[in-house]
Write a structure and sequence with these properties.
The chain has 313 residues and is of the alpha/beta class. It has eleven helices and ten strands. Helix 3 packs parallel to helix 6 and helix 8 runs parallel beside helix 10. The mean pLDDT is 95.
């Protein structure tokens, strides 16, 4: 088990600061860890959307519990660095006008819907909400959402704007990923998603409703994940981007019990969105239980026995 480097300061988790990259690099060089290329068993850490807007209390779409999830994940990276071959961090990335932002919709008086409004096809039929952009597509989109039993369209606060502070990884987590990359000579992957204005994109693999052939970009990530012996998942939010990513991985690996056993969720490094009317926590727990019965593993980041068992499998 690796030692936590001295530059790490848990008091900075959930705050904005400028990491000292020279100090991180110097301590990574002294870590004494073997290069990832020597790993006989490849373990990939998939970090989902642990960005400022989700993980900081002042973030535009703060997930309750995310700061504590961050603290546990960062310690996990340092403690288990010798066993983590490579890391992918996804970055949810949005534009001002997207189908789930207030600016896309208005009522008969021109007022935009407040955050967390649920928009349905019935709302359009009754004139409660009207698309201000792409009206024909917006109607088809809602129809396809309902037909495929996807989540209802939720209007979210403006969050993770491309190029904005809220889009960035939490700086203390970024420091851990950067340290791991240098200490283990392993190039990290940063995977952006969510910038097609005509669809939602919770999963890292595919959008809620495909718009064009460019939406197949997740195939590259799938190729990377298929090449790994173990995939460890953590991130935000459990109820949306983590859940939908697991849904797509289950679909891809369905009928392959051994492949599903390669998937593991760090159960204490993810939390659900808090919604004023929808109990996303209960819905998530129910689906996670079904995933566990399928063979996906759920462990706590600080459980050494569970980690050892995972490495032996």
């Amino acid at each position: 088990m690796a030692r936590i480097p001295r530059f790490h300061d848990p008091r900075r988790i959930g705050t904005l600061f400028y990491p000292d990259v020279s100090k991180i690099a110097a301590q990574a060089a002294r870590a004494g860890l073997p290069p990832a290329s020597e790993d006989l068993c490849r373990t990939h850490l998939l970090i989902v959307d642990m960005q400022v807007d989700f993980c900081h209390e002042r973030g535009a779409l703060h997930v309750p519990g995310a700061k504590e999830d961050l603290a546990r994940l960062i310690e996990f990276i340092y403690r288990r660095a010798e066993s983590i071959t490579s890391i992918t961090c996804s970055l949810d990335s949005h534009l001002p006008h997207q189908i789930f932002t207030p600016s896309w919709w208005s009522d008969a008086r021109g007022r935009q819907p407040p955050a967390f409004t649920i928009v349905t096809r019935d709302d359009l039929d009754q004139g409660i909400w009207r698309p201000r952009r792409e009206p024909a597509w917006s109607r088809r989109y809602l129809r396809r959402l309902e037909r495929t039993a996807k989540k209802a369209l939720t209007i979210w606060p403006y969050h993770v704007p491309i190029g904005g502070v809220g889009q960035a990884l939490d700086p203390e987590l970024w420091s851990a990923v950067f340290w791991h990359a240098l200490a283990r000579e392993s190039q990290p992957t940063f995977w952006t998603k969510g910038s097609n204005p005509k669809t939602e994109h919770y999963s890292l693999i595919r959008p809620e409703i495909p718009v064009s052939s460019s939406d197949a970009g997740g195939r590259g990530l799938l190729r990377l994940l298929r090449s790994q012996d173990r995939i460890i998942v953590a991130g935000e939010a459990a109820s949306h981007c983590v859940l939908e990513t697991l849904e797509d991985l289950v679909e891809e690996f369905g009928g392959q019990p051994r492949a599903l056993r390669r998937l593991c969720l760090l159960r204490d490094c993810t939390s659900p969105v808090a919604h004023p009317r929808v109990d996303f926590a209960a819905l998530t727990e129910k689906r996670f239980a079904e995933f566990e019965r399928m063979g996906i593993r759920f462990i706590k980041s600080g459980d050494p026995a569970a980690w050892s068992d995972l490495l032996r499998s």
